[in-house]
Structure formats: C-alpha cells, structure tokens
Design brief:
Elements (H helix, E strand, L loop, with lengths): L13 E5 L4 H12 L3 E6 L7 H10 L6 E5 L5 H10 L4 E4 L6 H6 L1 H21 L4 E7 L23 H19 L4 E7 L1 E3 L18 H9 L6 E4 L11 E2 L1 E3 H15 L14 E2 L10 E7 L5 E2 H12 L5 E4 L8 E2 L4 H7 L7 H14 L8
Parallel strand pairs: 1-2, 1-4, 2-3, 4-5, 5-6, 6-12, 7-10, 8-14, 9-15
Antiparallel strand pairs: 9-13, 11-12
Helix pairs in contact: 1-2, 1-8, 3-5, 5-6, 7-9, 7-11, 9-11
The chain binds nicotinamide-adenine-dinucleotide and uridine-diphosphate-N-acetylglucosamine (UD1).
Length: 376
C-alpha cells in the first residue's frame, strides 16, 4: 500500500497524536489545530488528564470533529486498529511513552515495554493502514556525555546512563531501520533539549505527578509555596557560575517545530539537499512527499545556568525563590546546548521565546493552576 500524501493542504491532513494529552502533546495539538490540521489523540492518561484536551478545545475553539480523543493504550493493538479504521490518518506524531529518568532505573521492564513495544505496535498497525509518516519525540539524551558543545546533529550518539535514555536511542535506530527496510517510510527524529514554559493562556502546562524531578516545575512549585526551597545540584561545574547549563526551549516553540516537521515531510519547506548529519535522504515521491530519515535538534542554541533560571523565574513571579546548594546529581553533565541551524535551514523553524518569556508563561500556568489539572 502506498504511503499517505502529505503534500496536500493541511486542512485535508489528519494527524494522529499519541500522548496528545501530555505536556508537549497538548501544546502541539493547539499548534496543529491553529494551522488547520485535523487531530486524533490517543492517550491512556497514565501521566495526564483529559482536562488538558478540554482546554485545548477552549484555546482553539475548534469544532468537536477536528479534535477526536481516544482514551486507549498504544500497546492495545485492537484499539489502535479501530482508531486507524475510524479515521483517515495521514501522519503520526508520537509522544506517548514514559519519561522519568530516575523511575526508569527502578522499572526498566516497564520502560522498555511501554516505550519500545508500544512504538512497535503503533508502527505495525500504521503500516497495515498505509501510514508511514511519523515524527518521533527523541531527546538530547541520545548524545550522552556530548563529544562537543554546542551540539550539532553530527555529534556522535553515546550510550545513555539510564533505561529511559536507552529507549530513545533504540527507537531512533528502530525507526531508521524501518526506512532502510522499506523506503516509503518518512521519518523525523526530533531531539528536544529542555522543554519548559506553558501556553500563554495559562490554561495548559506541565503537570508532574508528585515532587518534580526537573528544574522548572520544581522552581515553579517553590514559587507557588508548595515546596520550600530549590536544591541546586552542584555549584562546582566548569561553567560561568558553577551550576549546570542547559538549553531551555519554550514548549510552544517546540510544538511549532512539529508542525514544521510535517511541512518538511510534505516537501513544503527545505531544499532536501542539506539533510546530511546523520539523516538519510530519500527520493521525493511522485506526490511530492519526502521519504527518508530527518534528524533535527530542537533547542534555542543558548545555554542558561540553574542560577539564571532561578533569577529569571524570581523576576517573572515578583518574589525571591529560596535555594540551597546541594551535591551534584549522579548522571548530570555540566553543559548541554544545541546548534539548531539545521532545523532553521531545512524546517524553516527557529525558537522565538527567551528564558524570561518561558518563566512568565510557566508562572501564569502554575499560579492559575497550583494543583495542575487536579482531575486525575
Ligand atoms: P508526558 O508524560 O506529559 O506525555 C506523554 C503522554 O503519553 C502522557 O499523556 C501519557 O499519559 C501518555 N502515554 C504514556 N504511555 C502511553 C501508552 N502506552 N499509550 C497511550 N498513551 C501513553 O510527557 P511530555 O513531557 O509531554 O513528553 C512527550 C514525549 O517527549 C515523551 O516521549 C518524552 O520522552 C519526550 N521528551 C520529553 C522531554 C521533556 O523534557 N518533557 C524531553 C525529551 C523528550
Ligand atoms: C533531564 C534528564 C534527561 C531528560 C530531561 C527531560 C537526567 C540526568 N536527565 O535532563 O534525560 O530528557 O530531563 O525530561 O535526569 N537541577 C537542579 N535542581 C533540581 C533539578 C535540576 O539544580 O531540583 C539542575 C540539574 O542538575 C541540571 C538542570 O537543573 O543542571 C536541569 O535539570 P533537569 O530539568 O532535570 O533536566 P536535565 O537533567 O537536563
């Protein structure tokens, strides 16, 4: 069966968003709907709330039939078959998976099963329905301890220090092998740096379960008074202020990167010449849709330290954020930020928002929703 055509107008394109109720998924649904795509979400709500999708509807004001939601597990083959039969899906943006680094060390079987087996079932059912266009959520974690900074897509991959990171690296390989075996596959691997922030409406944002592991939600919960003080994990790194440096990217910019990836797959942007750097360029198909494997870093290209973040958030919320220096966290690297020239040149995409805007939006979400969606 020939692959689906992405060269057509986006009003005609239906995108299956797995994990669409989650943090990045819900923001991506907003951008897709705003751009006119039809969206079908599959999410088992294991780390999210259906309320997020209700708020996506409020933000976008779309009619019910442009955003359909199936509360199902991607491991459930029969449920997926039904979703593909009931909807004329053209492309998949695949977010569904577990993502907590520490938990993955304790529960490797659950992580490998959910992330790897889930993706295998998804791709198998998709292929059976002639859908071979997929954008995958990868991570800067695939670079491990990076060989050089700033990181380009040519930076060699290194083994991750935890099962979560391994699943990302392995899935990149599995999806690449799918293309090698069947040149109709059209695959984009997006390597996210550190997504933070929230939609400017303050209606959707990150809603972690329990005590957050990542810096931004932790800082936000200190700001709102739910936690006492931020632990800064190490101030003796070889960085300007001694604390770890990361490439924080606004989740709305990241979401826009997925729309750009769909356009690129449909042959609507990019020269198709500069793909290189680990990607595999395939022939453009007769309908204009690309085939191949495109690999892109999505970040801002700017590094910010832990103390930069604490300061920017203090300014956003108008109060001091108490913090204490703690020992380094095992497995952390000193500095991690991206070169995003490839995404700029090929996807015609660049991040727009700076750290102060990320913190302002994050604060609006956190202060309006101190207990998140609170509907689990
Ligand atoms: P999230 O947990 O908010 O979203 C993931 C969604 O997938 C959740 O809504 C969850 O309920 C759903 N899900 C999980 N397993 C499922 C299954 N088997 N079937 C159906 N639904 C399932 O996480 P996020 O931050 O939005 O991340 C989205 C993706 O991006 C993940 O794959 C994550 O690994 C990746 N990623 C995230 C970050 C980050 O910092 N947030 C960084 C790099 C990569
Ligand atoms: C972590 C994961 C990475 C994952 C990413 C997004 C690790 C080792 N890496 O990245 O695989 O893709 O989240 O989910 O867990 N920090 C503090 N205090 C805190 C929390 C963090 O000082 O309470 C520091 C960290 O040391 C780091 C920076 O803040 O320097 C960012 O940390 P975090 O938000 O956890 O992201 P990463 O570690 O970059």
């Amino acid at each position: 069966m020939a692959n689906k055509n992405l060269a057509q107008n986006q009003n005609e394109i239906t995108v299956l968003v797995t994990g669409g109720a989650g943090f990045i998924g819900s923001h991506t649904c907003v951008e897709l709907l705003d751009e006119g795509y039809r969206v079908v979400v599959v999410d088992n709500l294991s780390n999210s709330s259906a309320a997020a999708l209700e708020r996506v509807r409020t933000i976008t004001g779309v009619a019910d039939d442009r955003l359909r939601f199936y509360e199902s597990d991607i491991l459930n083959r029969d449920a997926l078959k039904r979703i593909f039969s009931e909807n004329d899906i053209d492309a998949i943006i695949h977010f569904a998976g577990f993502k907590a680094v520490g938990e993955s060390v304790q529960k490797p079987l659950e992580y490998y099963w959910n992330n790897i087996a889930g993706t295998l079932v998804l791709c198998d059912v998709a292929r059976a329905h002639g859908v071979k266009n997929i954008v995958f959520s990868s991570s800067a974690t695939v670079y491990g301890e990076p060989e050089f900074i700033p990181i380009t897509e040519a930076c060699p991959k290194h083994s991750a220090t935890n099962p979560y990171g391994q699943t990302k690296s392995m899935l990149e390989q599995i999806l690449t092998d799918l293309y090698v075996g069947d040149n109709e596959w059209n695959i984009v691997l997006l390597r996210y740096f550190n997504p933070i922030g929230a939609h400017e409406s303050g209606l959707i944002g990150e809603d972690p379960k329990g005590i957050p592991n990542n810096l931004l939600p932790y800082v936000a919960q200190v700001a709102v008074g739910k936690l006492e003080s931020v632990g800064v994990f190490g101030d003796d790194y070889d960085t300007p202020d001694g604390t770890g440096v990361r490439d924080y990217i606004h989740v709305v910019d990241l979401a826009r990167g997925h729309v750009a990836a769909l356009r690129w797959m449909g042959g609507k942007v990019g020269t198709g010449k500069a793909i290189g750097l680990g990607s595999i360029e395939g022939p453009t198909q007769t309908n204009g849709t690309r085939a191949g494997v495109g690999i892109f870093n999505l970040g801002t290209g700017t590094g910010s330290s832990v103390l930069d973040v604490v300061k920017a958030f203090s300014q956003a919320c108008g109060k001091d954020i108490p913090y204490q220096i703690k020992p380094r966290r095992a497995g952390d690297i000193a500095v991690n930020y991206a070169v995003c020239d490839k995404a700029r040149d090929e996807l015609d995409w660049a991040a727009r928002f700076d750290l102060s805007r990320m913190c302002a939006d994050s604060w609006r979400w956190q202060s309006n929703n101190p207990d998140g969606y609170n509907a689990r």
